Amino acid sequence: MTENAIQLEQVRLSYSGKAVIETASCRIRKNAVTAVVGPSGSGKSTLLRTLCRMNDRLPGFQVEGSVIVLGRDIHDPTLNVYELRKRVGMVFQKPCVFPKSIVENVTFGLKFHASPNGKGFSERAEQSLRDVFLWDEVKDRLDDPANTLSQGQQQRLAMARTLAVDPEILLMDEPTSALDPKSSRAIEDLILSLKDRHTLVLVTHNVDQAERVAEDLICVDEKTICHKPCHPLPASVTLDPL
Amino acid sequence: MNVNKMFPERGPAFWWTGFTALIASGTIFILFVSLVVESVPVFKVQGVSFLWGTDWFAGESYGALPMIFGSLMVTGLAVILVLPFALGSAILTSEFLNGRYRLMVKAAMELLAGVPGIIYGLIGIALLTAAVRDVFGLIDGNTLFTAGLLLAVMILPTVMTLAEDALRAVPGEFRDTALSLGLTRMEMVLKVVVPQALPGLAGAVFLGLGRAMGETIAVMLVIGGIDRIPQPWFDLFAPGQSIPSKIGREAAESLGFDLQWSALIALGLVLFVMVMALTSAGNLLLRRAR
């Protein structure tokens, strides 16, 4: 049996007492691609953000039940949340690059975790850019401002920045929804190429995309979730209450 | 130049807004021109030595340097004193306080920003001068330092609330991204939010600077009112004089004494140019920061 990277038991997510997800129990396998699908507003993103405690900042947000990530309850008070976020990286819907050069963007997170002398940064940057198939496109202009890249390239740069920190789990919140079809396919290919080394969790509202890249599927709807560890997906996957 | 190309659609809205814009910009122009015209007599008599003369004796000689020096000193001091507090409280409010508390702090700051200068001046003479005198063991608490300190207190709400706006204007995605990479809250603030907000922060400081440089009544009450550059020049615990406090003291009595009046207008012109120079320097910095 494959090991689980993430395990949710009777999880309830709420804002100021109002439930976003009433009850969620599921397992996410290591080194596999899991897609989280569901209608907009169903709490997919909230669920995903919970996995690296990105909702801590939101006033009134509450998690009940147990969320085990990489073998530890992430709400254990002795857990170092910054260490958790280093091991569980996240890529957001809109590509968000810092107003710095391309290479500075890639090494941005790395700088806070590696030894301060910066040894091996350029190798790491190159490796990360190769991982996201961006190296050949930017290798001659690494010092150009990152915002001169196209949206699709910026999203891959954002992924390279997250990968540079070497997370074991990569969470992606609709990473292709702001991109054109060609760039979306590039990201999908990228996701497939990463699953040997990483556990990937992808939130998407695009069922075709889920079908193309995911082995496991989690449907979120009606404040509850349904686990569908099946591949290929049945042709009749619907987002109706299950 | 083809006017039709510059303004492609010239309806009533164009003419009306154009008229109001002309009045608005014309006011500044007329103000500047009248300052220049009215200050001509003193420059005729004294030449440019008006600017670096150190003696101001009504009816004899007019030297503006002590006032220029005093203005720069108190404004500079105010900014240095206000920066850590304004930035610190802006960061706390924008990054660490939740909705209701943040709004409370903001409301208090915006209320404070509207308190008239005379109130600060009264508190200044009632409390601050005595405090400065006792703490630093001076004979008299009316000093350049006191004026700078009072100005710092006065511009704190303005600078703080504008700086807070600038920090809040940084999109949440940048915060999310920084945190998701494993940065701590403080690293996120210092390495992502503050650099992004730098133009706005500089703008906040320069606006505060403008207010400090022009503040008259509060400074007048605590600065000491002596037209002299301290010996040595960096002795902040000596009484001094700023441009607005000098004008405020003498304007009413000199109206009619030609040369003294002209000298005061010339001081006003110097203040005007200094504030303009500061503002343009600020804008230049802002553009470079981007």
Give a short overview.
Chain A has a single domain, classed as Rossmann fold (3-Layer(aba) Sandwich).
Overview of the structural elements:
- The complex is a heterodimer of chains A (242) and B (290).
- Chain A has 242 residues and is α/β, with parallel strands linked by helices.
- Chain A has a single domain, classed as Rossmann fold.
- Helices cover 30% and strands 27% of the residues of chain A.
- Chain A is built from nine helices and ten strands.
- Chain A has helices at 44-50, 81-87, 102-106, 110-113, 121-131, 135-138, 151-164, 181-194, 207-213, and strands at 4-15, 18-29, 33-37, 61-69, 72-73, 88-91, 169-173, 199-203, 216-221, 224-228.
- Chain A has a six-stranded mixed sheet, with helices on both faces. In chain A, strands 2-1-4-5 form a four-stranded antiparallel sheet, covered by helices on one side.
- In chain A, a hairpin with a 2-residue loop joins strand 4 and strand 5 (72-73).
- The two termini of chain A are 26 Å apart.
- The model of chain A is unreliable at 229-242 (pLDDT under 50).
- In chain B, helix 2 crosses helix 12 (258-289), helix 4 (65-96) packs antiparallel against helix 9 and helix 9 (185-214) runs antiparallel to helix 12 (258-289).
- Chain B is an all-alpha fold and 290 residues long.
- Chain B has a two-stranded antiparallel sheet with strand order 1-2.
- Chain B is built from twelve helices and two strands.
- Chain B has one domain: Orthogonal Bundle (MetI-like fold), CATH 1.10.3720.
- The chains are: A alpha/beta (242), B mainly alpha (290).
The general outline of chain A is globular
How would you name the CATH homologous superfamily of chain B?
MetI-like
Q: What is the level-2 CATH architecture name of chain A?
A: 3-Layer(aba) Sandwich
Look at the structure and give the CATH class of chain B.
Mainly Alpha
